[in-house]
């Protein structure tokens, strides 16, 4: 999906509008063939060089004791039995491998085995996805509950009159005209000077102002409900803010539990406590569906936070050209771009869940793929054994907390969310 369906669809929608339908699809497929050939070459070279798993192996070797020596338990227990002879007078090595597992240290060797190409592709995809997931999940675990609670705290307390609505609507109309004038100016600048760095900066600022304008228009409609039953619409609006508060509080609790699970079960060896693994197991003992349901809630919540981080990262942090998805107001190219990013990040989210809940998911197919083979894959296993990605994710959690606490989540134009309901 991330490397075939999404790119070819984006190539189609980004194609020249002057081309016919068949020409646009042909062009999109030709571009996609080039992408597939490039990826196939990269994966083939990588698979031939590092497509093996490496497992640590403890090697022991021992001979068989003669029947006459079975009564001599002291000699059998305290001495190494070399193949082809009875117990020796002293412990010693045979062919470089220790044959006494009781009194000696056990040597460790490495056993290599080539994995299937499919497993290798999954592993590389998940590793690439981790680069996105560590940022998106780290941001989303904080921003998802924070923004919901903040929306409740900045909710409108009452409706406005028609005259006030008209006054504010005129103000929005004036802002819309200013944005349109800036857009026309940028079009002329693009024709004369092209898309330079200054142009892209101005364009990004203009896009932010358009988003703010759309947001202000939506908020204005909330404080002046219209339709056949305005009172009913206002009640629904108020109830939705309370629902956001409840979801935000629950989301904050789940985020804290996720972070605690990582600290208690992944960062320490041996783990301090199985924590949520034990909770899921006990819920299964009450009713088999309860543990599975709780496990699914935590996994899907992590994906929600990843999506939130994807939108938040592109919208506010501005180091990736990601656009927010709004019902009825999302360009298809932006929609597909977000889907591609989230699909890549979700592959890493699956691996992360398999690690965090490995005790609960033990002896499952997902644990066999993500818990054994991928974590032992030659070349990338050190990234997982040292938890580099997870430490980076915690770094993004800390940076997001500081950013939202110090700077505020939306400071392009206003300081507080309540201002959107008070601006004229």
TrEMBL record:
Keywords: Membrane, Transmembrane, Transmembrane helix
InterPro entries on file: LMBR1-like_membr_prot
Membrane topology type: Multi-pass membrane protein
One GO term describing the cellular component: membrane
TM region(s), chain numbering: 29-50, 117-146, 241-267, 287-307, 335-362, 382-406
Localization per record: Membrane
The protein, known as: LIMR family protein
Species for this entry: Apatococcus lobatus
Lineage: Eukaryota, Viridiplantae, Chlorophyta, core chlorophytes, Trebouxiophyceae
